[in-house]
């Protein structure tokens, strides 16, 4: 009998060439979805409070998530999987959306794309800490260079000072890396779809009251904002993670995580083409430099604890 895509693939344990390429394919699909997250968030916070945008997407996405868990009679996470699901909820269901929503109030999405270039490095660091790998001194060296590059870019954009949006973006990178790594760890046995569905389900009771109160106070936004919020809920918060977590679980966090190196460029291009943001040449230079740094950092994770 063919196993539906909702369940994890046994190929994850084999490490075969086919499973790696499957992981790359799913990972690239997830990155395509995520690349529009910052531009859509910037559009949404132009008319709505960032708290409502950040938490509201999680509550809306929880509706199909709970329905899918019920219709498929999905099992609950076991004792080993629950920590990963909970930390994924803290990191990518609540933390990253909130921090990035606050950031998009004061900085353009192309600016945020450069900061998000550090997400793969952040994900690798959390994966290393939780999976027993020992990051080499070279890895931490690349990490420091990457942090210095991003700081230099932020200082250049802010004429010598860091904007509040820059600090929110740094918080988003840390929380996002944790959520990606922990969710991927749980997905190895729980499955990518079930992992994000359970993360959304356990978050819903926490965010329901504040979202309901803020929604009652908000003015009805125009159609573009409504569509942006729908994309954030059903694309960025729900369907995108089906592909992303499955890709990480099947092909490996370190390998498939490299696909995310394309995200800064995709976000910058999308911001320019869809929303008319002006993107200076320096942004492309810093985005490329961050990608080079992350690629070097990836190769430095080579040792595993016995």
Automatic annotation (TrEMBL):
It is a multi-pass membrane protein. Keywords: Membrane, Transmembrane, Transmembrane helix. Signal peptide: none annotated. It holds the Pfam family EamA. Residues 23-145, 164-294 form the EamA domain. Coiled coil: none annotated. Belongs to the EamA transporter family. This is DMT family transporter. It comes from Achromobacter veterisilvae. The lineage of its organism: Bacteria, Pseudomonadati, Pseudomonadota, Betaproteobacteria, Burkholderiales.
